[in-house]
């Protein structure tokens, strides 16, 4: 069984039903009624090529040897013990959903939020915990120097007629067409050499037609620490060139501006009843590779602060968890328990590595994991096996969303989209999803015989 139907879980299902033996059968659970994890709820809606991976993932779900069981949460609906007594191997692929914090004063003010919440809002996640309906200000500061910060800035600044052709959540579309900020700041506490943007995403933001990119040449100046770091990072050369190009280019005459600010550490978010500004200390690098404060402070006036500092894992009952790394401790994917390696528990994706890496990385992990399982796990003889999980869930009153039910949700969303000339309109609450799925229980799709896999889809 695989817990989590995000890219890591589904690639693991793919690899297992292809690599681990002709008779491998896999159940994939997800706490949401919908599969695809951050591919559906993280990847930016205008990243069409990446979103099209959903088709590949769907074909994995459609395999006869794979059974999708949505709306089933480990820790609430099923326990670790339930899984261990039913399956030959248990794979944790439940991601790293919690946003890291700045831990500075003012972080709780209305107008301050995590990028993961903002992303969840514009991607229609049913558990989005912040209502951004009245949130988007004319000036927004994004703290963090990675591709998620670029995604947020791009969605905030892009021309509004480019949004409806995406599957952006209806609630976000309605709001964003009315509100387009004038100034967005992407702010990092370290220098340009430590930025974690990739070239493709940087160029993409540079291509926004009516947005001026503003870079202060002084902040770009490469300190000794940068020289040291850059020596080991040849990929950084074109990124630096891009920034220097922007710093020199004549400024576009447009009311929409994206400012990149380097070497500024957030000290406090200011405001009385909501965010009004962020105060930052200017930093400098030294030759030992240490960034330190200069004692000089600057203020950026902004009605919203979005922190984009990465994510960390959530601790689930009975499952080992390392609070320092926010991951399930493991040795090359095998869960490391208190008394040594677990006999048949494994971990993959962001639950294994933390919030680093792209979807492609989870595919490599999956192949490695399938090989490990193929060579170490023997199927236990049948006989005194407990009832199928789906029966247990039915007895507990859990409405399981099978692949068939998910296809009804999918169809409903596409049909709603068609009426509006959009690719889909996402259902934004679990209740709506379950009603589209027509409240399915164990009798709707009893576990039947499954055939052997024929192709590796990934
Ligand atoms: C904002 C953002 C944008 C990104 N954009 C890109 C991009 O453009 N290209 C790219 O390659 N990568 C991108 N990534 C990275 C990519 O999303 C990750 O590499 C990938 O999703 C990690 O896969 P995962 O399956 O480990 O985790 P997730 O995708 O988070 O999947 C975890 C799944 O587990 C489920 N789950 C959680 N808890 C439980 C539980 N208790 N019981 C059952 N199920 C549970 C969740 O509902 C979820 O479906 C982006 C990430 C973010 C945050």
- The chain-level structural class is alpha/beta
Task: State the total count of DSSP E strands.
Answer: 18
As a whole number of angstroms, the C-alpha radius of gyration is 24 Å
The assembly state of the depicted protein chains is single chain
Kindly state the mean pLDDT as a whole number?
90
Strand order of the largest sheet: 3-2-1-4-18-17-16
Helix content: 25-40%
What amount of the residues lies in strands?
A: 15-25%
Distance between the termini: 19 Å
Shape: globular
Bound molecules: flavin-adenine dinucleotide
Low-confidence stretches: 440-458
The biggest sheet amounts to:
7 strands, mixed
Tally the helices: what do you get? 17
SSE blueprint and pairings:
Blueprint: E1 2-3, H1 7-19, E2 26-30, H2 37-41, H3 48-51, H4 53-61, E3 66-70, H5 80-84, E4 90-92, E5 98-99, E6 112-114, H6 115-122, E7 139-143, H7 147-157, H8 170-178, E8 183-187, H9 199-206, E9 211-215, H10 217-220, H11 224-231, H12 236-248, E10 256-261, E11 264-270, E12 277-285, E13 291-301, E14 304-307, E15 311-312, E16 330-331, E17 334-337, E18 340-347, H13 350-353, H14 359-376, H15 389-395, H16 403-420, H17 430-437
Parallel strand pairs: 1-2, 1-4, 2-3, 4-18, 6-14, 7-8, 7-14, 8-10, 9-10
Antiparallel strand pairs: 5-15, 11-12, 12-13, 16-17, 17-18
Helix pairs in contact: 1-14, 16-17
Bound molecules: flavin-adenine dinucleotide (FAD).
């Amino acid at each position: 069984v695989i817990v989590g139907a995000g890219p890591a879980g589904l690639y693991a299902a793919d690899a297992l039903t292809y690599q681990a033996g002709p008779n491998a059968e896999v159940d994939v659970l997800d706490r949401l009624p919908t599969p695809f994890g951050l591919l559906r709820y993280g990847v930016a809606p205008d990243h069409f090529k990446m979103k099209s991976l959903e088709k590949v993932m769907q074909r994995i779900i459609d395999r006869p040897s794979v059974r999708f069981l949505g709306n089933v949460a480990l820790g609430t609906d099923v326990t670790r013990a339930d899984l261990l007594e039913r399956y030959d191997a248990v794979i944790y692929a439940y991601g790293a959903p919690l946003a890291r914090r700045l831990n500075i004063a003012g972080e709780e003010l209305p107008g301050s939020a995590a990028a993961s919440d903002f992303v969840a809002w514009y991607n229609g996640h049913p558990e989005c915990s912040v209502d951004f309906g009245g949130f988007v200000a004319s000036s927004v500061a994004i703290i963090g120097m990675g591709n998620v910060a670029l995604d947020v800035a791009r969605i905030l600044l892009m021309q509004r007629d480019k949004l409806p052709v995406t599957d952006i959540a209806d609630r976000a579309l309605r709001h964003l067409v009315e509100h387009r900020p004038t100034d967005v700041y992407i702010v990092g506490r370290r220098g340009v050499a430590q930025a974690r943007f990739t070239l493709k995403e940087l160029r993409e933001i540079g291509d926004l037609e009516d947005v001026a990119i503003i870079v202060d040449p002084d902040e770009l100046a490469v300190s000794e620490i940068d020289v040291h770091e850059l020596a080991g990072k040849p990929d950084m050369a074109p990124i630096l060139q891009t920034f220097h190009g922007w710093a020199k280019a004549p400024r576009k005459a447009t009311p929409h501006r994206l400012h990149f600010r380097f070497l500024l550490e957030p000290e406090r978010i200011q405001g009385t009843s909501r965010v009004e500004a962020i105060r930052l200390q200017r930093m400098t690098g030294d030759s030992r590779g240490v960034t330190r404060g200069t004692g000089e402070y600057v203020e950026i006036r902004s009605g919203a602060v979005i922190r984009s500092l990465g994510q960390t894992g959530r601790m689930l009952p009975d499952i080992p968890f390392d609070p320092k790394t926010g991951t399930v401790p493991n040795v090359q994917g095998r869960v490391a328990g208190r008394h040594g390696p677990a006999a048949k528990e494994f971990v993959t994706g962001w639950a294994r590595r933390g919030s680093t890496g792209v979807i492609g990385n989870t595919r490599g992990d999956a192949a490695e994991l399938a090989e490990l399982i193929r060579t170490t796990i023997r199927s236990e003889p049948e006989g005194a096996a407990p009832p199928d999980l789906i029966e247990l869930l039915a007895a507990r009153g859990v409405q399981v969303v099978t692949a068939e039910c998910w296809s009804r949700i999918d169809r409903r969303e596409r049909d709603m989209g068609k009426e509006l000339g959009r690719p889909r309109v996402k259902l934004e609450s679990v209740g709506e999803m379950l009603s589209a799925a027509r409240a399915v229980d164990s009798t709707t799709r009893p576990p039947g015989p499954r055939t052997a896999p024929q192709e590796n889809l990934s």
